[in-house]
Amino acid sequence: MDLNPPQIYYTSSVEDNNSDNPYVEFKNKWFGSFYVGDWGSFIRLGSDGHLKAYELTESGWEGIDLLGLDQCSYPLPCGKYSLCSKEGCSCLDTVSESETTFFKPINSTSLDHGCYAVSPISCEPSVHHSFIELKGGYSQPIYSSLFSDTIITLEICKETCLKNCSCKAAIYNLGYCYFLSHVFSIEKNYSSDYYSNSAFIKVQNYPEKKRQNGAVIVGSTLGAVLVVLLICGLFFLRAEKGFEEAEEHCLDNMLGMPTRFSYEELKNITKNFSNKLGEGGFGSVFHGILPLGSDVAVKHQFNFGAVNKSFIAEVQTIGSIHHFNLVSLVGFCAESSNRLLVYEYMANGSLDRWIFNQNRDLALGWQIRRKIILDIAKGLAYLHEECNQKIIHLDIKPQNILLDENFNAKISDFGLSKLIGKDQSRVITAMRGTPGYMAPEWLSSCITEKVDVYSFGIVVLEILCGRRNVDESQEEEDMHLLGLFKRKQEEGQLMDLVDKCSDDMQSNAAEVVELMKVAAWCLQTEYARRPSMSTVVKLFEGSVDVTGSLNEDFLNGLTLEPVDTFPSIVLPSILSGPR
Length: 579
Fold this sequence. Notes:
By secondary structure, this protein is α+β, with helices and mostly antiparallel strands. Helix content is 26%, strand content 21%. It has eleven helices and 27 strands.
C-alpha cells in the first residue's frame, strides 16, 4: 500500500557494542549488534510487514521472523475493515451490537482478503454518518499520528471524528481519543489487562425505512428478555459470592499482613463514618481514632470489580513494606462486600491542596517544597531499588502525596502498583494511571520503573510553578505546562514560571530554576535517558552533578494542537515492500 508518510507499527532498539563492523543478530527474542561473523546475513522487510533475518549456512539461506509478533499484531492480516482474532478473520460489524450489515467480505471463501463498506462513506454532513462500536479490548496495531493531547469526553471524541471527512474511525482510551484516517485490521485483545480501548468505526447511514409491526415485535420479545435478565441476575449473584469468598481466602493466607478489623470496629472508630476527609474515584476517606488514641484515616472503597483488584494489590504491596516516606497501612477490613483500608493519619492532607491553592497566606516556602520533592524521591527510590521486589507505583501525582503535621511527604495509594522481579528490566501491563502524568512509552504497554520517574518530573514542575500540568483557566498557548516550560527554556526565561504566590519562592528563583532542570532530566522522551530515583536523591545530596546529563528536547514528538483544529489526516505507509 502506497501511503505517505511511512507508518510505525513496531519499534525496537539495538544496543551499540562499539564494534567497527557490527551486524544485527537476533538471539533469545532480542535484537543485538555483534562483530561480523563467518557467514553473510541480511534483513528483509516483506510487503506483508514481516521482518526476517537471513543467514547463509552450509545448507543455504535460513530465515527467522525477527519481530516475534502474533499474526494479528501486523497491519493487514485480515485486510481492511476486518477483525483479527484467535477465531480467525471476520468483518467488523459481526462483533458489534448493530443489527445492520455495514460491511461484507471481499471474498466469501477467503476472509483474509478483507471487507468493503456496503454503502461507501461520503463527505456529506455528519448527520448522515454514525458509528458501530466495538466495546473493550479492540485496537489497531498502528501508532496514530493524531490524537487529543488533553482529556476529552467520549461524545467530543466521536463528534470530532464525525465532523471531519478524513476521519474513518476513533479509538477511545482513558479520556484520550486517537483518530484514524484508514481502517486496517482491528485486533481483538483477550486480556483486559493489555488494552482497555473501545473502537468506533464510522459508517454511512442507510435511508430510514418505515417501521412495521413495532408493537408486535416488542410484545413477542418482552417475555424472553425478562427471562434472560432473571437468569443473568441469579448467575451474577452466585458468581459475586464465589469471588468474595476466594478474595477473603487470599487475604487470609497472605504473610505479614497488618491488623484485620471487623466492619463494626471501623464503624466505632470513625463514629459511624461521620467525619469525611475526602472522596475519590474508588471511595471516601474518613477520620478515625483507635482505642489507644491514635488518629487514622479509613478509606471505604466501593465494591466494584476494579476496586477489588486494587484493594488486594494495595494490601499486598503496602502491607509488607515500611519506609518513612511511604504512608503506613495500619490495617484493613474485608468483610462481605465491605472493603476498607486503615492508614496512618496525615494531618495536612494531600499535596495538591497546597501547591494549587492561590491563597498567598497558605503558599509553601522554598525549603518546604524542596524537602517535599526530596521526600518523594526517597520514597520512589526505596520502591524501585530497596524492596525484595521492584515496585512500580504507576500513579504518582499530587493527590497521592500526603503531608503530615511537619510537612513530611509520604507516597500513598498503591492500588495500581505493579510488582516485578529485580532481574526484570521491563514488564508488559495494561495502561493505567492518570492522564497528564503518564510517560510516552505507555502507548506500547511495555514499561519500566522509569514511568514513575516521568510522573515525578511532572509533579516537580507543578510544585515549583504552583499550577497544574493542564490548566484550562490559562490562555490557550499557556494551558499545557510542558509546552510552556519548553518555550520559556528556549527563551531563557524559566524564572517566569516560578510560583508567584510565594515571595520566598521568588527570592530563591535561581535555585528553583536549577531544580526545574532536574525535572527536565526526568521528562526525557526516551526512558533510558531518565535518571534513576536513587540518582535524583544523590543529586539532592550533592554527590551527582546534573550538568551534561540533560537533553532538554523532552517534548519532541508531542502533538500540542487542540482537537477542534482537526487537520486532514494522512496515515503513513504500510510497508510497500523492502526499503
